[in-house]
Amino acid sequence: MGNDEMDRECRKFGILVVDDDLAVLDVLCFGLRQRGFSVRSAADGRSALKTYGRHHEEIDIVLLDVRLPDMDGPQVLCKLRRLSSRFHVCFMSGDLGGYSEQALADMGAAAVFRKPLAAIDLAAKLMEIVTDSRLNPSIAEARRRANRRPPPQQTPAPVVTFVLRNMVDLQRPTSQFHGDHQLRWTGKDEG
Q1: 48-57, 88-97, 111-120, 156-165: least confidently modelled range
Q2: Domain around 128
Q3: Is residue 129 part of a domain?
């Protein structure tokens, strides 16, 4: 398991929330922190790109508003994907503009949330997305590796030293010890 997969298993899941409505942004960030996420936020696309660039190792999921002032959510996603593909994305909006939910899903969205949002329901769905091994290959691999049994240890066979002295059996042929590990029978075999 690589260090980044182990880190993801041991730390809180990170989320980048991007929304130009500061009241919505504050409420979402507060609610997601209360539900156990490590939260980063941005109020526009450029800030989102800068924040992701600085904290990409800590971000597992990006929650993007579809309509932002400088560039829309799908445009931000396209630029984020140039930086990395190791995150999930979800969109949120009260107005999808020229996009359909299917078009956003085709861009890679794990979910599309309609505003107004209930922070508790949103947090539960986001947690489901980041912990679902079918949607998160790094978690699937980490779980596979954690459940994999280590190969049996190859231990050398115990070394046994025999010391044979004056081995004489009147009923059997005489045996003689030659060298450290050889045993040779001499005489006739009786049957």
Answers
A1: 156-165
A2: 3-147
A3: yes
